[in-house]
Amino acid sequence: MRIGRTIPPASTPLSLQDILNGCRGLARGEREVERFRREIQEYFAVRHCFLVSSGKAALAVILQALQARRPGRREVLIPAFGCYSIPSAVRRAGLSLRLCDVDPRTLDYDFDELRRCLDAAAGRGGRRRAGGAAGPALLAAVSVHLFGKPADTVRLRELIADPEVAVVEDAAQAMGAESRGRRLGLRGDVGFFSLGRGKAWTTGEGGVIVTDRDDIADAIRRRVAALPGYGPMALLGLVLRTAALAGLQRPSFFWIPRLIPFLRVGDTIYDPGFPMRRLSGFQAGLARRWPQRLGAFRSRRRRCIARWEKLPLAAGVSRYPAGAEPVDYLRYPLRVRPPALWEKILERSLAGGVGVMLTYPDSIDRIPDLRDALDGREYPAARRLAREILTLPVHPLLTDKDCEKISRLIASLGATSPESRDATSVSDGLTGLGRGVS
Ligand SMILES: *Cc1c(COP(=O)(O)O)cnc(C)c1O
Predict the structure, then answer these.
(1) Residue 261 pLDDT grade (very low, low, confident, very high; cuts 50, 70, 90)
(2) Which of 57, 170, 242, 301 gives 204 a disulfide partner, CB atoms 3.0 to 4.6 angstroms apart?
(3) What local confidence, expressed as pLDDT, does residue 267 receive?
(4) Does the pLDDT at position 431 exceed 50?
């Protein structure tokens, strides 16, 4: 295990001033929460906003509210590769999962596969639903902006012909990011953001729900009102965890929490037993001046992203091609095709503490605790991506020296020119698609 400066793969600064603002917010209580709620409504120009204890809790509340409106429907469609919090929230809401494979070139749904998934969910295409239940089962489909890269939420909406199926936009990693002149999070019927550590900005933990749909908002309001607040012990824990986070996530200290196994820093955990609460005054207080902080973090990340866009890459390593507009990545994804190279980079990064990291350890269908909840189908592209994606850090705690260290690691692999290595120009995927992953 490394001792010494260690760069986290994702991070968001929290200052002593932020913590003090949190304590002031704690004293002001609900008034502070209401202030924060209004600020979000204004920033996003959205009709309704709800504040809860995490992104997971936001998704679970949304799904429970949707289900209360459509009691006959119990299935939620999600991409087979991504954050384990998504299936955790679906199961927490008492619903069943339907997975769809992803397109490794976009990190979004594989839209050809999606057609088949939707047909199957609607009971078309031969196979009837198990149990012979009447009526369609699909309640919602989740569109995920993975690493901040905009997913095609509009296309998902179009492919789902049934207007009763809600499109939920998971913008947990994309708060404040825009695509085609519009902020992410507002394209679906309802969207949510995470204020957890390592997201666009943080209140230690927290979740934000936004929607313009009055009918959905009514159902969510009832659910949120029924949630408990943070009790005194939970609040104490939150304040201590947040203060520890503010210090320990700095690169000069990050090796310390990494040494303490029970903190599980950086681990991706599937756990439907997470707490669900209303946001506290402490978190709302921590949020003071958030649009300014978010703006500053975003421009710092953009500078770093611009640097990674020009980084010469070795053969077998490709980036996601830059489109017409810059992407507000929270972590900068690289696709590394030969598994041996993927392992080599990861090993060197861990030894050097430079924050180049794998993302999710496996596809959702291969989470052991979910085996019984799924139908045993395989999702080959999702499974492969877990062993192909590495991310470069772009967070505001990176120094120029850190960036140089990362550049040197990538360059040491034997660089070719940046132009020849965009994901589109590598005569792509299909030839490599048959390759198994050990
Ligand atoms: C972090 C994250 C979540 C969950 O947010 P928490 O606040 O950590 O519960 C959900 N979806 C995605 C894509 C995320 O990155």
Answers:
(1) low
(2) 242
(3) 61
(4) no
End-to-end CA distance of the chain: 25
What is the CA angle 193-175-223, rounded to 5? Answer: 20
Ligand 1 mean position to 430 CA, how many Å? 30
Give the count of beta carbons closer than 10 Å to the beta carbon of residue 417: 8
Evaluate whether 184 touches 206 at the Cβ level (below 8 Å).
no
pLDDT at residue 25 in the model: 97
Rounded CA separation 269/56 (Å): 12
Pocket of ligand 1 (CB under 6 A): 54-56, 82-83, 85-86, 144, 170, 172-173, 194, 196, 207
417 residue type, one letter: S
Ligand 1 atom nearest 199 alpha carbon:
1
- What confidence score (pLDDT) does residue 253 get? 72
- Cα of 129 vs centre of ligand 1, distance in Å, is 30
pLDDT of residue 433: 31
Give the Å distance between the CA of 123 and the centre of ligand 1. 31
Best of 85, 173, 359, 389 for a ligand 1 pocket test (most atoms within 8 Å of beta carbon): 85
Which pLDDT band, with edges at 50, 70 and 90, does 415 fall under?
A: low
Separation between Cα atoms, residue 432 and residue 338, nearest integer Å? 9
CB 170 within 8 A of CB 145: yes
Is the pLDDT score of 430 beyond 70? Answer: no
Please tell me the pTM assigned to this model: 0.91
**369: which residues sit within 8 A by CB, 6+ positions away?**
270
**Single-letter amino acid code for the residue at 248:** L
